[in-house]
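Name: Glycoside hydrolase family 43 protein
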Amino acid sequence: MSGWSAGGFTNPVIAGMFPDPSVCRVGDDYYLACSSFEYFPGVPIFHSRDLVHWAQIGNVLDRPGQLAIPPGTPSSGGVYAPTLRHHDGRFWLITTNCSPGGGNLVVTTEDPAGPWSEPVRLAGLDGIDPDIAWDEQGNCWCTVAGITQARIDPASGEVLSPQRRVWSGTPGAQAPEAPHLYRIGEYWYLMIAEGGTERGHAVLIARGPAPDGPFEPCPANPILTHRGSHQPIQNTGHADLVEGPDGSWWLMFLGVRPGGGTPGWHVLGRETFLAPVTWVDGWPVVGAVELTMAAPGWAPQPVAQPPARDDFDGARLHPRWVSVRSRPDSAWSLTDPPGWLTLHAVGGSLDDPDVTFVGRRQQDQACRVRVLVDAAAGRGGLAVRLDEAHHYDIEVGDGEVRAIARIGPLRPTVATMAAPDGPVCLRVDIVAPAPDWSPLKEPDRLRLGVEGADGGFTVLAELDGRYLSTEVAGGFTGRVIGMYAAAGTVRFDWFDYASSPW
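Structure predicted for Glycoside hydrolase family 43 protein:
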């Protein structure tokens, strides 16, 4: 995770698949929400006092009544980009559920850690990436990808005016999206992304006299893009402005860290980055975006991170744990027996959209993950998942340990070994490649196997990481590493995630 020392901090400030950041400031506190796609619970929310150190405090959509993602929802469907704002003493969040029967919805709370309200649906308002902003008269404006806009009543969901286009960025550019509307000084500013969320991604801004325009584009657009560059951070876009503790301005935005040869493969998903902003002639100018950045001009406020090892001794799961599409109460338990995470199989493998799975985002380019699993009454194990058609699994059951590689239409069992007696420690090491470069260089390698009582590692398979990348699989997500049950009942005593152990 990010931190700062010796005058600098590291980007990303929130590592792993936490894209489409939206941030708001309330007094000395900052809150940030991200997309969650097909994972439940939805919309992770973070807290910070310094814009660099962030702690996840919950998930906005954490009840089945708030978020339905049916099994027919494809991977990279589900919940898209939210906007988080504070208005009139309450937090407001608007987002889009791109599942069948979904649509744009609004939830509110007085405490961003939750609970959040039941959703209010915005019937008749089309478009993803919704933004909300209030003017001085109390009107609420909703702007969506396109870039179109309407007045709404966020309390009732009623759309109060026709939806009209207000700006589209660069003429002919693809995917004008991610709008955010601000009143700063004498102008209303409308910031958007365009170019698609791949290598052509960019941030643009315009300003006007009113929330509905007319908008004048910044003459220096795009104000942020890394397209066509050799920068180690790529796909920069989908940004939100925020004022720092000292009155300076900052930009939170998504980017990726591709690795390996060409075209470069990013495996962690789109992550959240931070860059300084200055104002010149009434326009924001974004500073250089690097992996190591100059520290802000205020004191750091570090936050406690959850332990790397989860012994499942608590009354509930930490909010970092996610499941695929749903987590029915009948499929899992922390009390059967106490101190173990018990999973009951629904789908038969990670290939199935309703698999029983509990995982966390991979947040480091090199890491080691271990679980102690008892599969005496079933079959399951540890998986590195991108989607149903792209995952690597180390699985135990029926007296055997198996390494499985699902790559598109292929699903070979790569290697097997006899399972040791009793609970088994399954392990995955994700290893960064050697520094030498070639056009076909992989972004990383994954070693799947069994750890013995003495700590020795029996590697069953060593697999190329590019096949668990967005550039191969497609979509908008990154890797999630977790535990699953494929048959019967499988119990996990602990899960341990260690970053860069080598």
